[in-house]
UniProtKB/TrEMBL annotation, chain A:
Keywords: Phosphoprotein, Transcription, Transcription regulation, Two-component regulatory system. The modification 4-aspartylphosphate is found at D75. Residues 11-142 form the Response regulatory domain. This is Response regulatory domain-containing protein. It comes from Salvia splendens (Scarlet sage). One of its GO terms (biological process) is phosphorelay signal transduction system.
């Protein structure tokens, strides 16, 4: 596994408090040849991403290179910080908000789903997550690659692409 | 080779009955698909995690329901977790029992909860037993030089 720029595998951060579901999602992601880091809580996820409290680590480029994350997939129901809370924090962060976020839940609650999509989640998967769900991640990962040539730069993004994508997705889903 | 054939038949018959009787569902088949030469013990590993997690949860449930003042939210949280894990490995009857259990939690029905816990214990140990038998059959087939038949729903 090399750590060089554009040819690296996509790196997915998976967040789930269930050890069984962590093992499952990790295996599913690895069959798609993604590099996976699986953590057990929103707090651990934020630490990994370099966000502690609402402060961002003054990450220089050297730290960024090793923790570049191309997608975050998180369970919704977790103690302390829920997947929704995690989503909000990520989308509020100038350095992290372009990372696509996907939510998983064992419960089919329309208001919950809409809320997550409205706040920037790309997809909402019902558990148990299948290979067919994981296959839906690729377009989001590919898009991330095209938009930001070098995620390590961490400049604030002027045009917020995310809200437009959500609107498009919501419109599509509500028709 | 005669033995392998017999074991394989036993395996297929037993697996089929597990699906037929609702002990296992589609999701268990999905787990099988994730197992390959590079991850030959995947199913067994996930199921082992499930066993450990479940036994902890059953203990937690027993404790929670024995409290002077039962915290039904806490009980529900445990059942929710159990429902999730059983669903993730395809233990259908356990999952269904959890669904019923959650209804009693919502009603704060202690008797109902206690009965459900009893049934949940029963279902869990049943499926545990069945899965251990399944794994044993697989091992025997491999040890006898055969390959484990792939079950397609």
């Amino acid at each position: 596994m090399n750590g060089l720029g554009a040819e690296t595998q996509f790196h997915v951060l998976a967040v789930d408090d269930s050890i069984i579901d962590r093992k499952l999602i990790e295996r599913l992601l690895k069959t798609s040849s993604y590099q996976v880091t699986a953590v057990e809580s929103g707090v651990k996820a934020l630490e990994f991403l370099g966000l502690v409290g609402d402060e961002e680590f003054s990450n220089s480029n050297s730290k960024c290179q090793s923790v570049e994350v191309n997608l975050i997939i998180t369970d919704y129901s977790m103690p302390a910080i829920t997947g929704y809370d995690l989503l909000r924090k990520i989308k509020k962060s100038t350095s992290l908000r372009d990372i696509p976020v996907v939510i998983m839940s064992s419960e089919n609650v329309p208001s919950r789903i809409n809320s997550c999509l409205e706040h920037g989640a790309e997809e909402f998967f019902l558990k148990p997550v299948r290979q067919s769900d994981v296959n839906k991640l690729r377009p989001h990962l590919m898009r991330g690659q095209k938009n930001v040539p070098n995620l390590n730069k961490r400049k604030p993004v002027e045009e917020c692409l995310s809200p437009d994508r959500i609107r498009a997705k919501l419109n599509h889903d509500l028709e | 080779m005669e033995i392998v054939g017999q074991l394989q038949k036993q395996f297929v018959d037993f697996s089929t009955s597990l699906y037929g009787e609702g002990f296992l569902d589609e999701q268990y088949l999905q787990l099988q698909k994730l197992q390959d030469e590079s991850n030959p013990d995947f199913v067994c590993e996930v199921v082992s995690l499930f066993f450990d997690d479940s036994e902890k949860l059953l203990n937690n449930l027993a404790t929670a329901l024995q409290q002077q003042v039962v915290d039904f939210k806490q009980v529900d949280a445990h059942v929710h977790q159990f429902k999730g894990s059983s669903s993730s490995i395809g233990a259908q009857r356990v999952k269904n029992m959890c669904v019923a259990f959650r209804n009693f939690c919502e009603e704060k029905n202690l008797d109902g909860c206690l009965r459900c816990l009893q049934q949940l214990n029963h279902e869990y140990f049943l499926v545990k037993n069945k899965l251990e038998t399944l794994f044993r059959l697989e091992r025997q087939i491999v040890e006898a030089g055969g390959t484990v038949p792939v079950i397609v729903a």
